[in-house]
């Protein structure tokens, strides 16, 4: 297949990598099973789009505010849920993310409703937020053309931009998690009581973890918005969170660098199902193929739990799950 | 002169049964005090209440003159009162060294310091590591520093938890059955350490222990609990010959009791 | 006033379905310590099994429902033997089991979608047949659903409270160790529990489909929040609590839209109401109405 196709796969994998990095901080490092992570993506994307389209805030400013909104969302998320035990925390976070999606779907005046961002200025005008980004992307593309020596496509440009952001995220997160602050998070993950017994403010650390992780989710949401130039509430389905979980489970606990690798593996497998043009898959139509994909993901999750709970790339001794 | 730790009339119920009913005791600063009693007497529950892991229904606890009875566990620990657990809580997915370094107060645990004062954070990290290795030497775990704590034996984990509690530089340590599961030689060294720490740093110790020989040997004052209340307090000799204490252990008054078996009290 | 009564009736109808679904979740958690994320898909399975009988074979609703109960119970047992038992033998605990249940949910939902497609389904019932009782409008489906559900709820409560079987289940929920020491054949009890849970889930699914007039493969997932909220509100670990919690939640959701209640909550926000109630319970009475097990 073409470079453009694989660039798209690579770019989307990169976006998922950033998304999953946030989740890795929350779950892999702090032990908080956030199953509503997609909400932070939605918060980031919608905040930016609304600010750009309605309030005519310049893109970069809107993006920074969107990331801050993601962080604030994570902090808010922690308040009612912090004292919940693992599985109930998980379900509460799913509930919150569904409510966020619900708001996006129903508050048409705020978010454009089910039609999505093109409806942000009402039905008479097609709203676009991507203008400034498109020019930024074009200048990057021109620069790449010079560097590479031949014409690169916009998909490839996006790929480069996304993975530069992935690198920056890793450069920020890695020293954070290797620091004494990260040490407290890992202790909380394993045993909150023991950590509290040493005088650490466990609740505050959990809040920080959720907030910062959601900030990364918001960044992923922004890049998603720029990549596809348009989105609607359906783009923030709970299934997206589960993809991030798959990536985190592949990467294994408390390993930041493994997350992008997990995201690439995931991206390859996911888009690879396109190429199942051999029997028996040829008997299936697109919808049925997506159902089969759902079942394969489910089976994969179970297989991971049964045979490699430390993650595909993880270390058994540092295993987080039990 | 007020005691460092004052416990007054603590009451706590579970499912309608009184786990602690009117417990009162004092622990003097710089002392090594014991807390003994048959299984089910409420000793660990009292520990949990004093250290902030549970809230009392009635009564008060004051530490260093300030009330701590409804404070959270982390706040109590920051006030200088730390504890170990009956079932050791060594952080098995982290290295032994990490376990120790975790405990020391450290500006690097705040994100603002990480960002704004990285050099100070690095410097403190070096100090803490040195201190941690030194303490590991004291509890004889220095060879295991880079192993995952999960690979340690039960007795070693007890030592790790003990050393870790000391890294906090506490004013007082509550030791919940420090001898259980530890081989006798190591146990004696641990007690030696307790004495040394008290002598050199003035750290106060309150220990729950079922091994009566140990308690009689190292504690200056012993409180005895039975059925949720403190029934006797005094020096070892007095407690040993106290008829109520003997009754409590031998069950002639119908108290639910097993001989000193090392079984966990709730 | 009439509006309020109507809302109360609607709330009871909804709440009784919640109660049945939540009781199953509570039983599974109590006896097996699994928070079964896929439980809601057992409901979907039951609803679609009834569709198969009702639409596919032309059977009447009574037979279809009974078929659905049997099919869901069989499914629950199959999953126990193929998945839960082996995972338990491997020593899997809370988080692993939870993630496993998520994988199971995907497999179940994917299979149902694969077999039945994503379109909406409905039972062959007369949706226009309605009764007016004292001015309150109740459709035939709603009437049947609430009658069946309330009977099932009462029956379940009686079984749990009065029979040896029920006592054994509750004993298991309190402590698996104690139960096996007391001579209870834990493995066999687990089988009985899954059968009961399967029946409750299948019934809840069929009834949910009935009162919604049309539904798709997301039937169960849409009930995820209300069901788990009901379990937590009623108190984790107490099937009675789950029954009460379900009824309470249904009532609160409906009555909150009453215009006499500060103008009434916009019905569109009903899911948020469930969540708000959940949060309120967690903040003020975290053990729930009847609970003893720890959610925190």
Distance between the termini of chain A: 42 Å
Mean pLDDT of chain B: 86
Order of helices and strands of chain A: HHHHHHHHHHHHH
Determine the oligomeric state from the structure.
heterotrimer
How many individual helices of chain A?
Answer: 13
- Give the biggest sheet of chain A: none
List low-confidence stretches of chain A.
none
Strand order of the largest sheet of chain B: 6-7-8-3-9-10
Rough shape of chain B?
globular
Percent in helix of chain B: 25-40%
Structural class of chain A: mainly alpha
Indicate the radius of gyration of chain A in whole angstroms: 20 Å
Report Rg of chain B: 19 Å
End-to-end gap of chain B? 33 Å
Tell me the number of helical segments of chain B per DSSP (H or I, 4 or more residues long).
Answer: 10
Find the structural class of chain B using helix and strand composition.
alpha/beta
Q: Helical residue percent of chain A? A: over 70%
Strand content of chain B: 15-25%
Number of strands of chain A: 0
Q: What report would you give on this structure?
A:
The complex is a heterotrimer of chains A (322), B (266) and C (296). Chain A is mainly alpha-helical and 322 residues long. Helices cover 71% and strands 0% of the residues of chain A. Chain A contains 13 helices and no strands. In chain A, helix 1 (3-29) packs antiparallel against helix 10 and helix 6 (131-148) packs across helix 7 (154-177). The radius of gyration of chain A is 20 Å and the shape is globular. The N and C termini of chain A lie far apart (42 Å). With 266 residues, chain B is of the alpha/beta class. Chain B has helices at residues 43-50, 73-78, 96-103, 111-116, 118-138, 154-167, 184-201, 212-218, 236-240, 243-250; strands spanning 5-14, 17-27, 32-36, 58-63, 66-67, 81-83, 172-176, 204-208, 221-226, 229-234. Chain B is globular, with a radius of gyration of 19 Å. The model of chain B is unreliable at 253-266 (pLDDT under 50). Chain C has 296 residues and is mostly helical. Chain C has helices spanning 2-32, 39-56, 61-89, 94-116, 140-162, 164-174, 176-181, 186-212, 219-222, 224-234, 239-255, 270-284, and strands at 130-133, 136-139. In chain C, a hairpin with a 2-residue loop joins strand 1 and strand 2. In chain C, helix 1 (2-32) runs antiparallel to helix 8 (186-212) and helix 1 packs across helix 10. Chain C is globular, with a radius of gyration of 19 Å. The relative contact order of chain C is 0.20. Chains A and C meet through helix 4, helix 11 and helix 13 of A and helix 3, helix 4, helix 10 and helix 12 of C.
